[in-house]
Amino acid sequence: MNEQDLSLFEEYFQLKHAIPVNIQPGGDWQSLPNFEQFENDIPTPYKIASEMKGLEQTMLRPLRQLGDVIEPLADYLKAQSRKIDLMMNYILQAQDEHDVKLNTTSFGGGGFTLFSEQVFTLDSWVKCKLFFNDDAAAVFCYAKVCKVETLDNGSNYTFVFHRIRDEDREIVVRASLHLQSKQLLKKTQEKSQ
Fold first, then answer.
1. Which of 85, 113, 107 is nearest to 174 (CA)?
2. Which helix (H) or strand (E) holds 26?
3. How much is the pTM?
4. Fewer CB atoms near the end CB (10 Å): N or C, the chain?
């Protein structure tokens, strides 16, 4: 892994957790589309999902400042938001392609790792779809295969995000923090039993 890729990858926390990811080879590194071409390639459901997540965060923030007086309205809006999340999750699941589906071993705002018997070429780029089912979110991005560790029955791969929108990176970071808090809560509960 070169220094620049290592720096991008390590800039964000990595959570050891399996999430579904679709990976399709894109080509050699020199053929990586520019950011404008990448944005044109993002399927509409991913654009909608990102925008909805952003709106939800923006709209609920002012309500929290109003305190207990507004709590029933906030609860109602959270329920409406949950219904929309369920519908969005259904739409995004239709984007999940089982013939290119793998699971990560870790992920974070800089990229992800996984084990696969499928061969990915070092320093090539791939199209990725990451699915965060607990958060009714998914992210479409391009990543670089920056590290390959060959084993007897497959390889461990490290992918670094190189074409990802800021709002989508925020979704990845938020999902990793959400899952980490769930893991910590579970450990605390197990220790107290």
1. 107
2. strand 20-28
3. 0.85
4. C
- Fold for domain 3-188? Thrombin, subunit H (2.40.10)
Helix axes 44-64, 166-192, angle to 10 degrees: 60
Q: What is the DSSP string of 126-184?
A: EEEEEEEGGGTEEEEEEEEEEEEEEETTEEEEEEEEEE--HHHHHHHHHHHHHHHHHHH
Q: Output the six-digit token pair for 149.
A: 């560790």
Determine whether 129 is exposed, middle or buried from the number of CB atoms within 10 Å of its CB (0-12, 13-18, 19+). Answer: buried
Instruction: Please count the other Cβ atoms lying within 10 Å of the Cβ belonging to residue 98.
Output: 7
Distance CA 142, CA 41 (A): 10
- The residues, ordered by sequence, that sit 6+ positions from 5 with a Cβ below 8 Å of its Cβ are 144, 146, 160
Is residue 116 within 8 A of residue 123, CB to CB? The reply is no
- pLDDT per residue as tens digits for the range 56-107: 666 666 666 666 667 777 777 778 877 887 788 888 888 888 899 999 999 9
80 vs 110 pLDDT, higher one? 110
